[in-house]
Design a protein that fits this description.
Chain lengths: 155, 735
Amino acid sequence: MKSLLATLALTTALTFPGLAMARPVTLTTTLNSYGGDGAYLALYVTDASGAYVGSLWMAGGKSKYYEHLSDWYRATGGDAGQVNGITGASVGAGRTLEITLDLADALFDAGYTLHIDAAAEDMRDSPNEVAVPLTNGGTGSPVAGRRYIASFTYN
Amino acid sequence: MIRALHRWPGLLALALVTVLSLSGAALSVFPAAERIATPQAEAELTVAALANRIQAVYPGLEQIRRSPSGRITAYWFDQGAPGAAVIDPATGQGIGSADPNQVERWLTNLHRSLFLGDGGRIAMAMGAAAMLVLSLSGAALVARRTGGWRQWFKPLRGPLASRVHVEIARIAVVGLVLSSTTALWMTASTFDLLPDGGTQPAVPTIVSGETGFSLDQMPTLQQLPVTELRELSFPYPGDATDVFTLKTDQGSGYLDQGDGALLAWAELTGWERASETIYMLHTGQGAATLGVVLGITALGMPAMGATGLLVWLGGRRGRPRIRGNQPAGRAETILLVGSEGGSTWGFAATLHAALTEAGQSVHVGPMSSFAPERYTQARRILLLAATYGDGAAPASAKRFVDRLNTSDPVPDIGLAVLGFGDRSFPAYCAFARTVAQTARRKGWPELLPLDTINRQSPQDFARWGRALGEVLGIALDLSHQPVLPAIDRLTLVSRRDYGSEVQAPTAILRFALPHTSLWQRLRGVGFARFQAGDLIGILPEGTAVPRLYSLASGRRDGFIEIVVKRHPGGLCSGQLTALEPGDKVSAFLRRNPSFRPGRRRAPLILIGAGTGIGPLAGFVRGNARRRPLHLFFGMRHPDSDYFYGEEMPGWQGEGRLTRLVTAVSRGARPHYVQDALRGEAVQVAELVRNGARIMVCGGRDMAAGVAEALAEILAPAGFTPAALKAEGRYVEDVY
């Protein structure tokens, strides 16, 4: 059992009022065998200017460790309310986190970037582990992270 | 109550606590090993210089961390590949892998959560709570056993398992309390139950917008010694709005990458500091020596678990298994037992079985558990009470009379008392009589008049059972077979004969120690552990009723010795005095904890006559510590029944016996041991004033005479034998 399947359907994440068009998107994050305890991952979106827009998912249940997801923590001021209801377990080395949620069409090809911050106990903090522009063309193409993430895809 | 609080968490959490303590002990090694293996920074090295050094070697430097052991770790990116290493602060070069130690990681996960996530963490926290309860209740028990907190390290006696248990406990308890309380604090912190979360200052929005200010020019870092550093994170390359993040022992803040200015700073809160201190105390990270000490004390835990289990099993051994014992709150019949050696429990088990078979619901417990307010369904209380010594409560009935006196009688509950004893003693069933009188005076309805069982007689018991059955309207047939303790076959190795000239043929019989297994020695059962003054039960051929003799030797002497006078027509004494070396007898050991010299240094006044010299001679022979011993010994004639006369001069020469005063009853002027006491009245009174303890062994008439003489001698000094007895400074072994 190498792959952890956390499949969720969320309708509330990042929909814009007035722009009701949204589509289900599956985010698949596979970790490499970094040889440590389960990693905390924060998935969130920034706009073209780099400003924080919202969070998509938080893998890791204890808010006292969120400061190690340092970019996310700076952007949100460590506000656990940002991930209220979209929090799951941390992800073990070599395992896969798969989440499905409804993302507004307006987020695609409009300069928005999806970021993942990662951290594991007694290992390096890896803010901006992954940063991928949200584009229709980028769908399905895997991206490698800097330290913990072997591949990340959205489609 | 405290004992229950100690026993049940101990038994229930034994496995959990064992895992906790073993993994904790193993983990305690790592901080110390890390401390030893880590090159320490030179004392005056600043963070500015260190960061500069490391950055010169690793230009893509992202973060520097310092662990409490002083280990510096650097994380960097080099051409898109992440790198990390333990750094030698003297050179800035990497000297080892920064990857977590897999063994330590595995042990840590076992220790804190059994690899079971949050559920496992809660289970382990409960294990820690059990450890805390065990430590505190155990400490209270140790204090009770040693006679108070001030005597915490007083030497102990008792079976080996119990002694080992307490010896470990009184050293390890401090470490265990520390480990378990800090564990509970850390669990609470992990589950966000404490307000000790990180308080980072808000990230400044206004920065210089410049980059590239040299690290070794930053004033904050120039003033910060490496020993206070926790973490320094570098700004994201190419992002002019990003800042340096600095964490130290005092707090955390941000530094501008354009001019090195300190942009924001927040001190650690009191809660954070408390949590960090507790983390250090628990893990030994930053306090490696303490960690190793805690690890060693944790190792005592499995040993205490094993010995504790043995103590518990040993405590159960004296009592027969009661099958289908009902809780006190639901039973119609409450059957309480006051027993010293355990034989009365056997009768209780027989009675319980018979009543249960007759459809009654019966609760059996010790008399010390008497609590009438809990007996909500009870219709009757049956008390089976042995007597200890001269009418005192036996071990399992401690404080019963006090409780009976302070509780109100329940009009619906009838009470019956059955005494167990030996008619040859003046205080025959004295405790049972006291109980019955107290109950009558308090107004408890009498279910049956007081009855007694002489020498564990099955006939007496069956008769009482029929009477009880009549009252209850059931046919109660009690057939009880007394269970004797484990019997050993002892071989006589030598005998010395005395007294035939004075018509009192007496022999000092010496038997070889029977073989005892390691298991027996561990539990201290039977002849694996005994002292002079303990009793030996001899089972003569042709009867199942044992006779008891006082031992004149301890286990350390390497033999079993008794002094036996042949009584005309005496079955047991006849058989014993007829033994020749090589012959065997059946025997068992019965402890006699009330008749022991004790470990104090105060002088002992030993008074005995005839065969009563046995245990007293044993005390003298075992007096390796040269405690002042004054022996008053009464005999008939020095040429005939001066037992141990050959050894006395040697014992005096070695300092084992300070003074010997003999009294000879056959001669021109009959002189008894009480006369000898009167002759030394001044010295005796002086000794008692100085804290001396008096031990008397012999026949009943002699003991009465001695008590009378001592009352006279001590009255001017303001002492009475009764008051000394109450203090435990005057003990008798009388037959």
